[in-house]
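LOG
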Amino acid sequence: MTTEYTHTPVLCAETLDYLKPAAGSIVCDATLGRAGHGSLLARAALPGGGIYIGIDLDADALAATRPVLEALYRDIGEGEYFLLQGSFADMDVLLAQVGIGYVDTFLFDLGVSSPQIDDPARGFSFKQDAPLDMRLDQSAGIKTAADLLATLDQQELTRILHDYGEEKWASRIAAFVVNQRQSTPLTHSQQLVDLIKAAIPASARRAGGHPAKRTFQALRIAVNGELDALQAGLEAAIRWTRPGGRIGVLTFHSLEDRLVKRIFAQCEQSCSCPADLPLCMCEEKATLRVLTKRPLQPSEDEITENPRARSTKLRVAEKL
């Protein structure tokens, strides 16, 4: 891969302000991407013997980012960095490889990066024709989006499009998929876009952005098991974070944001007993303090410069 990408990280100043990575600390970038945020975290932590850990499923992202981190490390001349391929769902195993006992700062920058969207071979975008792959880790033996469209029954397809894409026309799109695949396999993005446009009435296509956006999002989430991985990764991060350490999560759609909000809220509760009990019997204690009661969002100026930032939300919590 020789294509040069321009990757613009979102809410950089706000992320650093809330996470407060310190010299000599241990930081984990759970979604390395092109190290937009990671470079800032590493530059803050490595002086004084800090450790930077970057994790990503995508081998292309790791290969593209390694020279960036190597140059930064040579410039600083202190600390250590580790780049690990894997899912943050396996956070316990990955961090055990590094041989640390805790982490000071975690950042999860969710979703698909601009380089992945813009690479036609990955099949993430509904704006250019490409094979319907959508795997974040293309070396993994998991089913592609085309495989799901070819094998799932109509009920399961409807559930995925409704639950993961919040698609109003999920059942109709699923019916069209099942009908078309009897004669023609759906293997490329343009085929799917054309099918979605045919399935959704013209009057409903005039609002809400591109009609294929929600279906492509749903298939990507299903292919990569993103929501299950997010829950497992966040729960692991909460365990690994030292008291006083911070966890930040950048989300790009409502499903992710609601999940993060729920997990943070649950960990902020100090008692889970029924409200009618006169005394606490569970003896549970809060493990987090949420620092962003309302999620932080990009300014209009940042959105103008980087339109893909529009839906971003940042939530941050501190370990108690």
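LOG (cont.) second protein
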Amino acid sequence: MYILIVDDDALIRKWLTMLLKQIPNREISVDAAENGVQALKSIQNGPVPDLLITDIKMPQMDGLELCQVLKRNFPQIPVVILSSYDEFPFVKKALQLGAIDYILKADMCLEDISSVIERAEKSGSVNAVPADDFSYAKEKRRLLEDYMKSGRKDDHTFLLRLDPRLQLETLTLMMFRLDRNVDSILGALAGQRCPLEAVLVPYDETAYLPFIHDGGASGGSSMRKRASVSQFLKYLPFPVDAWSTVLNCGEVGVYAGIQTCQDVLDFKLYYSLDSFEQIAYRGRGEAVQIAQIPFYKSFFEVAGRYQIKEAEELMRKCLDTLHGMYCHPSDIKQYISGMCHKLLSDMSMFETGGDWFSSTLERLHEVESAPTRAARKSALERFFEQYGAALSSAAPKRSNAVLQALAYIDEHYAEKISLEQIAAQSHVNSTYMSELFKKEMGVRLIDYINNLRVIHACEYLRFSNYSMGQIAELCGFNDQNYFTKVFKKFLNTTPSNYRVDFKR
């Protein structure tokens, strides 16, 4: 009988090994691992143990997570839990995951060990879901999200957690998108058996990542891997809107492979392409320097003079030019967003209704999230319409005192400025300036300043890697907590969530 002990405590491993060797009338061989990751690697390389005895609390992968992976992929392995008196809630969870018994470390003796071995021999396999069943979609998606958020480069550990059958050296990564959600695809696949060693993971609401292991020699041929992808596509019982693939995950790694699949898929969907036979693919960041496009420089000059109609026409020409160059949609998103933010920043010089910023920003989000070039052009027109409506409600005439205050705020918003400093620019007292500004602008002076700071903060959140504290300082906020409070007041979300939403 082959038994695998999993515990990060060397003394426990030695003591348990000694007890196992003392069991009479049995031939027992014992191996040990320090955590769940090592245990799965040992199982992956063979042989498969007849019994696995594991601790609960361990680094890298604990006993509960190990039970989950074993239940999915090695349901034939009986599992026994090692625990302390204060760990019973975890023991209960492990038993729910299929563990057949538990042993208290403090009371561990030869009789207990003999008893669990007898029970393991009688138990057969635990009641578990087959490895190719797609009902673990939520758990797989959680594993993927944790991996992507942490930027972890330990691909082998991630693949072990996802499915021990997957090996980086022979892994083909694929991404496809459908016009349906996760629940509907799982329902369509229920009861079907995938002809490949493939693990399907939901990437977002309508995109899916099959991790395909061809089972061949390390690396495998490109022709064989392409055949595996083609076979998987034929297996799906519905048409795929678009798909992309990375054949050499062993060279680029899982994280970079997923990013590449996403970039290629976005490109194909954006330009409605089935392949790249007619055009050359431009990856993220490979676009021509937009500063070289004449329309781009002219836009900022015209917008600076508040020639709004001319600025809008130049933005249309810029977008058409970027589309004509087949720039990557993520690059187009960045360029067009920057131009829209220039208009939003200049808008602060006009008196408008109180909700102009949030309503216009909603149209900007539509521009940024547009999945196709046609959708982006339409969204940009709606942005112009909303922007124009806000401008049409602006009061064109203001007193010299307020105009001087606006000019001063626009130049010094990133500094610590007071009402007294602003009033001094127009040689009036602070009380009069406060009342006059509220009367002519329709908003309190402090709210106007904070509104302008939030607009500039949005630019930093979109197009820089500065920390929240750095952005707060660059935009004139006293501290990060106050910055977050003001930002949430204007946009009903936190700066961190705003950045995450933009990066998606």
